[in-house]
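STRUCTURE:
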């Protein structure tokens, strides 16, 4: 186990590994993240105190390690608190200089057409009956932002059973779910036989739906194959080619709008490539059909912006970036709508093509996955 070092002023605790790696923690952070019964509820893990309850002149006057437990004595509270060393190291924040914009969260894996031979896949009946199968599939969805499910019932609203495996349907102006088939006078181009460029759905919403499910009920028409593209891979390819183009698409907001039906006028203002305050790549919004006039880019940067926008679209359209498949009745696919773009090839009027779609949210998916992973960890212990 590591050794421990306390600064002279009692404000910094340093864990020192056997190899000499030093991981520092501030006294205020340690006190705020205590797990003693007076600080955290044993039932739900929520804090029982606010930051105002911690003395502003807080300090640590003693630190020692015994086995896997670090014990700290806090003043002026006159309070001794135990910490699990492994938990501290897993939550360390002493990471050195900030990272360059465009880094990916741990466990995220980008992909291109090579994923065609290894599409994340699960059988509906097995995933419903076996938590391990469901866990593995959800884990792949988290990693790749995309997955297929086969063997589902060929019946209306079957897609709602898919959503119920991990979360809840997010209702929109399109209803709890929507039909994807040719219509006369359609309110959306998705309801025609036209091919659609790879896009993320509903960029005109804020927040955008974070998971989309498309479920096949009929598919005898010629054509109509589905395609998916990893928006993170496309964004990082753009960055590698021209960092200034990545920067301009992440620096300035595009505008998106939908007013295709009576009583609906949805608008959002977000970057096409979204990074967090510390540079993590967290989202892509790309939908040419719903892009409104872009007015938030300064005049001197507009030409560069459009050059970047054009190239980003070319990368997305590159067949080397896409995974293509044709759904059969009872099959569906899911995408992380903040990351993965989906498309459709055009199809003829002969035969029939009927899909149903709905939206859900990624927090439900990640919550279900975390719960299943915790069950496995607890069983192993």
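SEQUENCE:
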């Amino acid at each position: 186990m590591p050794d421990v070092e306390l600064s002279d002023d009692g404000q910094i605790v340093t864990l020192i590994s056997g190899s000499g790696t030093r991981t520092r923690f501030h006294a205020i952070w340690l006190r705020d993240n205590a797990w003693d019964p007076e600080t955290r509820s044993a039932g739900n893990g929520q804090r029982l105190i606010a930051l105002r309850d911690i003395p502003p002149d807080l300090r640590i006057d003693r630190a020692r390690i015994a086995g896997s437990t670090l014990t700290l004595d806090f003043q002026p509270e006159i309070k001794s608190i135990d910490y699990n060393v492994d938990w501290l190291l897993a939550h360390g924040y002493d990471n050195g200089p900030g990272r360059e914009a465009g880094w990916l969260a741990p466990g995220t894996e980008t992909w291109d057409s090579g994923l065609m031979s290894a599409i994340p896949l699960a059988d509906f009946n097995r995933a419903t009956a076996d938590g391990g199968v469901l866990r593995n599939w959800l884990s792949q969805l988290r990693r790749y932002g995309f997955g297929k499910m086969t063997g589902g019932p060929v019946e209306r609203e079957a897609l709602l059973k898919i959503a119920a495996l991990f979360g809840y349907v997010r209702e929109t102006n399109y209803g709890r779910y929507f039909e994807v088939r040719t219509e006369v006078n359609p309110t959306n181009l998705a309801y025609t036989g036209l091919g659609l460029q790879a896009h993320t759905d509903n960029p005109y919403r804020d927040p955008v739906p974070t998971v989309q499910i498309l479920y096949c009920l009929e598919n005898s028409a010629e054509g109509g194959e589905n395609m998916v593209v990893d928006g993170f891979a496309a964004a990082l390819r753009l960055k590698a080619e021209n960092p200034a183009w990545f920067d301009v698409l992440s620096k300035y907001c595009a505008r998106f709008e939908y007013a295709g039906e009576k009583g609906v006028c949805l608008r959002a203002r977000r970057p096409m490539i979204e990074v967090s305050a510390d540079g993590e790549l967290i989202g892509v919004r790309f939908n040419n059909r719903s892009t409104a006039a872009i007015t938030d880019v300064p005049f001197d940067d507009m030409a560069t912006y459009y050059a970047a926008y054009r190239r980003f679209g070319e990368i997305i359209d590159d067949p080397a970036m896409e995974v293509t498949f044709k759904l059969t009745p009872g099959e569906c696919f899911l995408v992380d709508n903040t990351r993965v773009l989906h498309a459709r090839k055009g199809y003829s009027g002969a035969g029939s093509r009927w899909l149903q779609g709905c939206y859900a949210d990624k927090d439900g998916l990640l919550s279900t996955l975390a719960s299943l992973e915790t069950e496995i960890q607890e069983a192993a212990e």
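REMARK: The mean pLDDT is 94.
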